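User: Sequence recovery, please. Input:
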């Protein structure tokens, strides 16, 4: 009986050792792979989730399928209304224009209305818009203020794609024109080239205006004469006193 048990244990021991070695070897292999990945990533173990996050942050896409620039294109505009003394309204208009010029902007239009108010249309660098508004508010009594921001990134992407396609089509038409030999073919290609060039010029003009609107914000300023305070003269004080006396004859207490 003891001999049978001993033989069985002799058979099981190598099998047990073999089963123990296989998992240890697998663990060692996995550890070596993780260490290798860590060395390739600058000494850190990079998991799949971390790598996926890094890849997704490289570029994003618009709903139209075009790549969105890293910096969003924002078109800003603002308007401000001030009340100033009627005698100072013209001088205040000049001060406002000088202030905008000092901020790197320009005066696009200056209009004096029949009611004595002024309206000025400025272009101001977008990164200086808030500072310019705050400075203009100090020239009078603010009565209104508004601001608007529009994201035009996708619009710029669409214009760029259309311009690229039209330029390619124009180049292909020019190549066909060089190979054309018949008069009717030449006239037909030239008409098509003129149509493409007209459309291309229009799109390029829109793209330039869009770039300008993003770089230089629109700022409207309205200057209204403040209502003058009524001051009683000598006869006015006499009349006011007489009215007070008559009122007290009929009404003692309210």
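Assistant: Recovered sequence (254 residues):
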């Amino acid at each position: 009986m003891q001999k049978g048990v001993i033989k069985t244990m002799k058979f099981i021991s190598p099998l047990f050792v073999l089963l123990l070695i296989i998992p240890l070897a697998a663990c060692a292999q996995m550890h070596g792979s993780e260490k290798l990945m860590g060395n390739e990533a600058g000494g850190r173990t990079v998991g799949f989730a971390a790598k996926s996050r890094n890849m997704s942050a490289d570029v994003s896409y618009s709903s139209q399928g075009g790549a969105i620039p890293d910096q969003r294109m924002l078109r800003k505009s603002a308007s401000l209304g001030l009340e100033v003394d009627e005698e100072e309204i013209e001088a205040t208009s000049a001060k406002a224009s000088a202030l905008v010029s000092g901020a790197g902007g320009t005066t696009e239009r200056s209009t004096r209305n029949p009611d004595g108010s002024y309206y000025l249309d400025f272009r101001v660098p977008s990164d200086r818009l808030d500072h310019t508004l705050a400075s203009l508010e100090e020239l009078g009594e603010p009565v209104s203020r508004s601001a608007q921001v529009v994201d035009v990134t996708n619009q710029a992407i669409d214009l760029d794609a259309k311009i690229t396609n039209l330029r390619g089509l124009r180049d292909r038409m020019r190549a066909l024109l060089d190979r054309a030999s018949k008069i009717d073919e030449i006239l037909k290609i030239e008409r098509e080239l003129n149509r493409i060039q007209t459309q291309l010029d229009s799109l390029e003009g829109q793209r330039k205006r869009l770039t300008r609107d993003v770089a230089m914000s629109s700022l409207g300023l309205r200057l209204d004469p403040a209502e003058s305070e009524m001051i009683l003269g000598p006869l006015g004080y006499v009349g006011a006193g007489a009215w007070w006396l008559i009122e007290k004859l009929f009404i003692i207490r309210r």
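Confidence is low (pLDDT under 50) at residues 1-68.
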